[in-house]
Every structure is written in C-alpha cells, then in structure tokens.
Amino acid sequence: MTNSALAPLVVDLDGTLIRTDTLVESIVLLLKRKPLCSILMVFWLLSGRAHFKSRIASSVELDVQLLPYREELLEYLQAEKRAGRRLILATAAHKTIAERVAAYLGFFDMVLGSDESVNLKGRVKLAAIQSSVGSEFVYAGDSGADLPIWQQAQAAILVNPPARVARVVRATSSVEREFSETGNRFYLWIRAMRVHQWLKNLLLFVPLLTAFSFQEYEKIAMVLCGFFAFSLAASATYMGNDMWDLESDRRHPRKKSRPFASGGLPLSQGFVVAGASLALGLLLAFNVSLAFLSILVLYLVVTTCYTWCLKTYVLIDVLVLSLLYSLRIFAGSVAADVLVSFWLLAFSVFIFFSLALVKRCSELLILKQQGCSRANGRDYQVSDLVVLWPLGVGSALSSVVVFGLFICANETQARYATPNGLWLVAVGITYWLSRLWIKTSRGEMDDDPLVFAVRDFGSRVTIAAMIAATLAARFLNWG
Q: What sign has the CA pseudo-torsion 104, 108, 109, 111?
C-alpha cells in the first residue's frame, strides 16, 4: 500500500473495467449484422491495427449498458470519485467506444483512446497518459501489456491479472489495491461446452437398444465414438451460439450468467476451443464412417442455420429442434449399422416436437412471471402460451398414439414374446410426458427437458420402469 490517494487514477477498459474485449465483441456484432464485411476486414487490417479498430468502431455500435462490468471495481471508483479523486479512462479500444462507456458510467473526468492513426497500447498509452495527466498517476490494469505503464506509475491497481504478471508488478511497483476473481476456469469451460447437454446425444444409442444388439461390441464401440463426435461438435455449436447471442443473452434473466455473456471466459479463447472441438468431432465422425460424417455435417449446417436465423421464427425453431433430435436417432442407426423403423422415426418427431415446446413454454412462463410481454431475439409473445400449450400437449398425446399403432403392427406382434406388455410402456410414456408438462406449468422446468429428465428422480424411475417393461415384453412370454 502506498500513500497515493490524491494521485489521478487511470483505468484501463478491456479486461479491467469490463470482463471482455470490446474489439472482439464489435467484430462479432459486425459479422452478425453485416456478414459481407468479413471480406473488408482483411483489407482494413492491412492498413494497421489503429485503422482496423477505427473502421470496426464506425461500422457497428456496441450497447455499452450490456457490457459485463466489474461491479467491485466500479464501487471502488465511485468511492474514489466521491472522495475527490480525478479518474481517467485510458484504453486501447477506439475512443468512440471509450467515450460511450464514460458517458454511461458518468464519473470519468477524461477519456484517452485509440483513433484512426494511433493504437493506444503499451508504451504509446504511457506517453499519452504522461502527456495528458502528468508523471504522477496510479494505473489500474490487467495484462502484461500494462507492465510499462505500471513501471512508471506512482502505484498499481491489479485487476485479476495473470499470476506471472501480478508477481512482476508486486516486485517492481507499489500496489494500492488488488481485485481478483477466484472462479474455477475449468468449471466455466465445462459450462460453456454444456457438457450436461451431451446427455441428449444418448439418443444415438436408441437404435442399438431397439434392435436389442446388446452383445455386438463393435457396434457399441462405433456408436460410442459417434456419441463423442456429436457431443464435441454440439459443444462447438453451443459456444458459437453463445458468442453469437451475447446481446440477447445479457438481457435474459438467466442466460446473462453464461460464461461468455458474463465475461467469465474471453471470446478469443472461445473461438479457439470451439474450433478445436469441432475439428476433433469431425475426425471422430470420419472414424465411424463417411455416411456418419455426412449426417454430422448436416446436423452442423442445420444448427448453424438455426443459430443465424431460424430460431427467430415462431414455431420454425421448435420444428427444427425436434428434427435435430430425430436426426440423432438416425445417426445412431447409421453408426450401429442397424435399420431404424418407420414407427421409431414417427414417434420421435411427435415426442421431440412436444419436448421442444416444453422448453419454449417454460421460457415464456418465466417472462410472464417477470412481467415481460415478449421474448428477446425470438418471435414469441407471452400471449402465445394459449396456443403453444395445447399444441405441445397434443403432440405428446400423438406420440402415444403412434406408439400404440406400433404395438399393433404385425412386425411388433411377431418380434416380441409378449407384445401387449408394451402397453405398460405406453402408460409410462403418457405419465412421463404429462409430468413434464405439469412441471412446466409450475415453473419448475429450468433446463432442457431431456436433461431435466435425467436429473428428476420421478422421471428416472419412470424411464427405468419403461425399459424394464420393454425388455420383459421382448424376451418373456407372460402367458
């Protein structure tokens, strides 16, 4: 600690005042709104980093109110301002972005930022600070690029820097204050990849189970390899979707805490991890078969179209989600090299359409409880519940009807020792789907319905009973 309370406090923006990088966020936003600008960006960058930032900043406008600010640091800065301290925002971000941030926060006395010809970073930023503020100042930063500034500052404020950087600053500078975040980075990546959503890819094993190929270990190995291929590829799309939807997620009461929306994970690393996950998933799919790889590519194309545009259209989004669920079952049949019946595909379309509507109705119910009238980023209104609710329940009952027709089919009567025993399964399906819809109406459906089913004790018991009844009907003659 040093007696530096009266020295002007210079604060960095990216990674310090906020948990994200405004340049990366601006690039993502520009690609989202003007995809053709991806070609122009190459030429902008050839003219230098300062020119690149300037063109990006002039092409798109970030909503600075939604940026993930460090609340503890904001409280400290506000207290220092009330005590009469002079506050300066100095950043390598473009000056127009910095000025909007300063105007929103309302307590900075001066703003220093990059412009068309100057990239305000490292020693260039130090020179600008010394020219505008003087030689006596305290600097708040977060990265190794700030080391030259800390070395010349009267004192340092460390804001969650890497351990190596923190050690250097503590050894060479007087530290006024430290702000650290102790979140588990590994856990954040698990959340970003949505590993719990991998449970949905267990649907690849359904054709193997319905064919009762329990002892064909080569087929099991292929489906297992396909499971990880789909899971890694799905994680890549989840991360891409989260980085694509930063603005809408930050407006959502629950999604705003996601790793990328909250700034817990940097977007730049997110793109790298997503790319690596996608590459590994495609490699595993190729190892299964070329046909399986083609299905996975189709899955990725559909999910990308869903992310970019389809999810904004009412009902189109839930239809696409239900087809993606069914596509997993078809992919499992290809991996295991077993035929998938018409009955299974028809059943899956109806039941997954119902489950997709469960998720959408759950989100609208939360919005209704919060007094909102419509979903952000989607063409849904709370008033749509009067239509979506019976549509989802009707689709659930339709899946039960299809299952009943499957029981009565000649192929089922010939294949099962006691085909009428499958009516117990039909009762179980009716109960389970009804349970999901009741949970939804109570506001207890806070996740994907399939993931919820794995976590919910009643659902687990029901599903286990249905599996047991199916096996008994297949192998046992009940007389």
A: negative
